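Bug #77: duplicate submission created two jobs. Keeping one. Sequence:
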Amino acid sequence: MRLSRRTFLATSVSGLCPLALAQYTASGIDPIQRLSGKPQMGLSLAAYSFRQYLDLKKPLMTLLDFIDLAAWAPLDAVELTSYYFAETSDEYLNKLKARCQLHGLAISGVPVGNNFCIRDDNQRQAQIQLVKDWIERAGKLGAATVRIFAGSLEKGDTLKEAQKRVIAAIYDCCQHAEKHGVILALENHGGITDTPERLLELVQPVKSKALGVNIDTGNFRTKDPYSDLAKIAPYGVVAQIKTEVYPNNKKEPADLPRVIRILKEAHFQGYIALEYESDEDPKIAVPRYLKQMRKLIG
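Kept job's structure:
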């Protein structure tokens, strides 16, 4: 039976709400022990799936159009990628929020592209401010999460030193996120998060109620991506589902039932967003995958 959007949004800590769920993070309890409730998922769609239509250089679709399109799908929410905001005024944010409310759609997240590995203090501070600005916008939108990156090593840098800077930057942003009722979701996006161990080395020391993991199911290029996804799944507050995986960096179709099973076994409670990146026109492929995902999550 499909979970209604109203029920999804009203669920408390013991259910789905990523914001309430993240209140447990500060306790230092292992997420594997903490997430023992029944796994429940809301289905979302990432605007990035329609990137060729939303490209601001040659836009064929606006974010408002994307929301209208998503309203026809079996969705609980939409993910509004920051790259495609035509502007960031309060008036524009209110239009996006109102359009989502009109269609009964929540906003599962606002993904941001940032790099906290940068060694130059001024440039890194600008990246921190970028994330803080989007935290505030996400708060105004009522978005559940802000997806962030860690970044990649610069030439001559060391992993240890980069990790120190990234952890400090994430902690700084978490303090801001707590004030605005938003959860930061660090993605396994390659760079210094190319393995589950390296990702968790950045997440675990922060111990903020405003930090979790954005589980991107297509980003591990390791020997066994499924096993690695299982290692980070207990820390997930939101997920992006890809239709391909890359074992040993070789592309193959994702086993979506297995992906969803991994999340369920980790007692995942939150939104999962289809982030479609394949070659087929998303207007054709996305409805097909959403139908499959809706059936899988129940």
